[in-house]
Amino acid sequence: MSEGYQFIETGISEQIGMITLNRPHVLNALNRTMIFEILSVMESYDRDDNVRVIVLNGKGRAFAAGADIDEMANASSIDLEMLNQFADWDRLAWIKKPIIGAVHGFALGGAFELALCCDLLLAAEGAEFGFPEVNLGIMPGAGGTQRLTKLVGKTKAMEWLFTGKRISSREALKYGLINQIVAPELLIEETVKLARQIALQPPLSIRLIKESVLKAVDYPLYEGMQFERKNFYLLFSSEDQKEGMKAFQEKRKPDFKGR
Ligand code: DAK
């Protein structure tokens, strides 16, 4: 399925849909076309019954070093408004399947924003995150100030956003930005291992868990719990709920179909 894409590589194996950023000569700097390609493939994976988990990683020596500065350098506010590129980024929030990011080298600026949109993140030892936008006279615009603050709180977010400093994978782990640090040579192996584990779970449960957890970020507790309850009830209409509970009673492994 890679054919036709200029800046990413794609492929499905063992129910895992891979997306590999592929502009290594510029550390996978994210240009407009690349973002459009990422979203197009994510949406096609989201519709594809053969995919249960999406994995995003980068080729070469970095996940990605942010948005393509050459593409932005001469843009005016009006260009940005008329191009409405944030509309593509916003589509990320609608992906229903779990997305696992595998970060090595750098995840800076827009790439950090992309990583923060992943549901789970593994980082290679030595990986660095950060928002260097301030050094360029701009600021994050694809959710960085909001998602980072919700995750780490105002104080750390201000420090990192004001200074543009790079955050080590250890610090990222300490602040709950990532799930795990792994040796660089094991990054893909460990990511795929985790993806495989999730791919074995009932897809509808995973889908509604993701939806419910994301609501927790935006909703007050009571509203979030009402939302959770509806999803809980919904799962009792699924074949997988019957299969999961029957398999338990029959002391065998369940065979989940996503129905
Ligand atoms: N854009 C374009 N080229 C880049 C790049 C980038 N972001 N990052 C690296 N490169 C290129 C370098 O220019 C260099 O190209 P050549 O000189 O070889 O032709 C090549 O990649 C290798 O980079 P370095 O030689 O610099 O490698 P080093 O190991 O020495 O340094 C570095 C690695 C990551 C520390 C450094 O490359 C660096 O500081 N890169 C820039 C980081 C940065 O400021 N990123 C952009 C932040 S602003 C938007 C959505 C999102 C955003 C904006 C708009 N809309 C929807 C409108 C997001 C904005 C940002 O991300």
From TrEMBL:
CDD domains assigned: crotonase-like (cd06558)
Keyword Lyase on entry: yes
Keyword Lyase: yes
Keywords, sorted A to Z: Lyase
EC number: 4.2.1.17
Pfam (any one): ECH_1
Protein name as it appears in the record: Enoyl-CoA hydratase
